[in-house]
Design a protein that fits this description.
By secondary structure, the chain is an alpha/beta fold. The protein contains 14 helices and 12 strands. Helix 2 packs across helix 3, helix 2 crosses helix 4 and helix 3 packs across helix 4.
């Protein structure tokens, strides 16, 4: 990709600038990304060119008809991002539109959101992905988390989260990592940026074993993670369990007022859920009529793995020389 002098290595999802004196290659599961000091600006400006009209992002095609006002807002936000030379992120139109759509095209608010998002990722790198999909394959195939390929009645993507299957992951961090990757795959969609995502939180079959992961600390970080995302997330709680009465008050205390207002409890009242999400796009377990093809749905992840791997390198670089030879894999799963 780029060579010589400097490498950007993944440590958790934290970026560490490594001085490549010995021409050594730092890797995480045989994956590394190199960026030269001289080409850092090229990476941000030339390689990631502003999109006009039909956008192509790693095989994802979008017709993005930005208005003149929106393009001016995007240019203003891009200039603000460039004032942070150690913030290595995409600067194309469609990416910056994520934060501007969230802020209703208020540039200052969008920039504040962008900085908050990446500072959160730097401070909580253990909760962010840092490895190829092969490292998560078993959990992916558990179908605990899956993004549907159709939208609800409000134009939102639909994401199913079966909480009882969290225990099929190696840790709560793996759950958070896969969440990140599913959402990143749809965040470039203009409809998703504008309308958000509906999450079906299935609490059926939750066992006491989950308490070791759904601690106040983890709950605080996970809810904060949703709050800092440049996306409106709507939660639809379905089914029930005795443990839910213990966990929900803990989770609710960490939610922002805006997030709490987007939580809806349906339990097993499917007509209530169907007011928001049509039964034609839901499996029978949620009162729907669709038989989900999970293998086909997982293609959303696998077809965009290169896109996801590059996403993992984005964020604040560490400028401290003493950290340039930082050893990787310091995250205990």
């Amino acid at each position: 990709m780029f060579t010589h002098l400097f490498r950007v290595a993944i440590a958790g999802d934290r970026l560490t600038v490594c001085k490549n004196i010995s021409r050594r290659s730092h890797r995480v599961n045989n994956f590394s990304v190199a960026v030269t000091k001289g080409n850092r600006q090229e990476m941000q400006e030339n390689r990631l060119k502003p999109m006009k009209g039909r956008a192509d992002v790693y095989g994802m095609y979008f017709d993005v008809p930005f208005s003149r006002f929106e393009l001016e807002c995007i240019d203003q936000l891009r200039r603000l991002v460039k004032t942070y030379p150690l913030l290595l992120i995409r600067q194309d139109n469609n990416f910056l539109a994520r934060f501007l759509n969230w802020s209703e095209w208020n540039v200052d608010k969008a920039f504040e959101k962008l900085l908050t998002f990446y500072k959160f990722r730097k401070d909580n790198y253990k909760y962010c992905p840092f490895a190829p999909l092969s490292d998560y394959e078993n959990f992916i195939k558990s179908n605990c988390l899956v993004m549907l390929d159709q939208r609800d009645r409000n134009g939102r993507r639909v994401y199913i989260c079966r909480i009882a299957r969290y225990l099929m992951a190696r840790s709560i961090y793996e759950v958070s990592h896969l969440d990140d990757m599913w959402f990143e795959c749809v965040l470039d969609e203009p409809e998703t940026q504008k309308n958000g995502v509906s999450v079906i939180m299935d609490v059926k079959g939750m066992s006491l074993s989950l308490l070791k992961w759904l601690t106040p600390k983890h709950s605080s970080v996970m809810t904060r993670k949703a709050d800092v995302a440049p996306l409106a997330i709507y939660y639809h709680v379905v089914n029930s369990s005795g443990l839910m009465k213990v966990i929900m008050p803990v989770i609710f205390q960490f939610m922002s007022p805006e997030t709490r207002d987007r939580v809806f409890f349906h339990y097993d009242n499917w007509p209530s859920l169907h007011k928001y999400i049509a039964p034609e796009i839901l499996p029978s377990e949620y009162g729907g009529s669709l038989e989900l093809d999970y293998e086909n749905l997982r293609k959303l992840l696998y077809d965009r793995e290169d896109f996801l791997l590059e996403y993992m390198t984005h964020g604040f670089a560490d400028p401290e020389p003493e950290n340039w030879d930082h050893q990787l894999l310091d995250v205990t799963r």
